[in-house]
């Protein structure tokens, strides 16, 4: 089965991890510090806090932003459930704003209509690898005293209007799962423009430990002392994962080049094909394409999905609208809430897209899909 996504692991990656195994640090050590510095440099120079997954990054981000039971988080339903569930776990009410039908990205006009005096965060998702419209979202957040959060699990390595991912929103979360744009095995990061929010993120992911003597409330202990002021969790990345991530970062530009090349080949092959709609790219965006979300028209998405799988091509669907999940449906969220997102979902099919996909693999995907759609 040809997978729809797959990690690219080089001998240099293996050597980097092996070097850590031969050293003194396995868990959070110098490789983590170096990796966080590299992510910061990639993201406009803002502090980066690494962690164990993209879901952990979202949990950390919402906690660092002080999200709680009195708050509302406005987000998109066209995402993996964690974008919403990590805020809901902290007690926030999730308000779903519809997406732009062309791109699958959250619609600023729908966001504006969803805001209230309880809005704490506008949480956008860089669906498929291109950034949401933060130039429109940021003024909306500022007007109600909220913060913007970019769920950049798909878009690490991209940019918009000349600014890198990580520099577009108040807080940015990243995922380094194997199928993402680079991998640490499992892993993620939170990038924060505000140093105070970044420090809260760091302490939350580090079990809440405070190690700054100037902040201690217990002043008569020895140099071993550390204390907890707020609850935290252990979401720390290991040096093993960080070493892999550092090695992967050296190939990020090549990963981007190949993903862009494959996307262009798909676009050319499927352009003007009856029954298909190719992805729409936002003006001013230089995407790091993580998904290739072709649209299957005419109500044939499931038929084509099953036929592609039967042909040995591992297509996927990204994503079921979040509020369709029973955990949200049982709270009273109804189908029909976001019509554009529901229509997008009904048509979306993710084709194989990863750096090691060969030209012959791409040809096979193209030929199979064109044959099936033409039947």
UniProtKB/TrEMBL annotation:
<dbReference type="InterPro" id="IPR015421">
    <property type="entry name" value="PyrdxlP-dep_Trfase_major"/>
</dbReference>
<keyword id="KW-0663">Pyridoxal phosphate</keyword>
<dbReference type="GO" id="GO:0008483">
    <property type="term" value="F:transaminase activity"/>
</dbReference>
<dbReference type="InterPro" id="IPR015424">
    <property type="entry name" value="PyrdxlP-dep_Trfase"/>
</dbReference>
<dbReference type="InterPro" id="IPR000653">
    <property type="entry name" value="DegT/StrS_aminotransferase"/>
</dbReference>
<feature type="modified residue" description="N6-(pyridoxal phosphate)lysine">
    <location>
        <position position="180"/>
    </location>
</feature>
<dbReference type="GO" id="GO:0030170">
    <property type="term" value="F:pyridoxal phosphate binding"/>
</dbReference>
<dbReference type="GO" id="GO:0000271">
    <property type="term" value="P:polysaccharide biosynthetic process"/>
</dbReference>
<dbReference type="Pfam" id="PF01041">
    <property type="entry name" value="DegT_DnrJ_EryC1"/>
</dbReference>
<keyword id="KW-0032">Aminotransferase</keyword>
<keyword id="KW-0808">Transferase</keyword>
<dbReference type="InterPro" id="IPR015422">
    <property type="entry name" value="PyrdxlP-dep_Trfase_small"/>
</dbReference>
<dbReference type="InterPro" id="IPR020026">
    <property type="entry name" value="PseC"/>
</dbReference>
<feature type="active site" description="Proton acceptor">
    <location>
        <position position="180"/>
    </location>
</feature>
<protein>
    <submittedName>
        <fullName>UDP-4-amino-4, 6-dideoxy-N-acetyl-beta-L-altrosamine transaminase</fullName>
        <ecNumber>2.6.1.92</ecNumber>
    </submittedName>
</protein>
<comment type="similarity">
    <text>Belongs to the DegT/DnrJ/EryC1 family.</text>
</comment>
